[in-house]
Amino acid sequence: MTARRSFEYIDGESEKFWEIWREDRCHYVRFGRIGSAGQRRDKYHVNPLAAQAAVDKLIASKLAKGYVETTRPTERRFARGRGPTTQSNKPSTNTLPEGYLRPRRVRKGTTNV
Q1: Which residue in 15, 108, 107, 19 sits closest to 71, CA to CA?
Q2: Which has fewest Cβ within 10 Å: 34, 70, 82, 90?
Q3: DSSP codes, 37-61
């Protein structure tokens, strides 16, 4: 899943938002007036590359119409499919503490597969 990219259009008559994100072969768009829940549209594509091409085309279209991106820079980096550029020195929180798992014992009369 790519991160959501958010855009806003504000002029004298309207205040609109537009968000887009992609998951595998599908892209999702949420849009509406600022302050409302808005509407959502889903579109499925032949493959992930076609979905990404459609996302890029829609973003270019919104920017040409005067929408301004409101996504934070770190979110934009992940939206393009790139991970963090630096490794953290913090230990991962997803690891089990040492000694948590016991070694597997082989029962009599069986083989260790």
Answers
A1: 19
A2: 90
A3: --EEEEEE-SSHHHHHHHHHHHHHH
The two three-digit tokens of residue 61, written as one number: 């279209």
Per-residue pLDDT of 56-70, as tens digits, reads: 999 999 999 999 999
From CA 107, how far away is CA 66, in angstroms rounded?
A: 70
Q: How far, CA to CA in Å, does 93 sit from each of 38, 74, 75, 89?
A: 36, 21, 22, 12
Q: Using the Cα atoms of residue 62, residue 63, residue 68 and residue 72 in order, give the sign of their dihedral.
A: positive
Q: What CATH number does residue 16 fall under?
A: 2.20.140.10
Structural domains of the chain, count: 1
Within-domain flag for 95: no
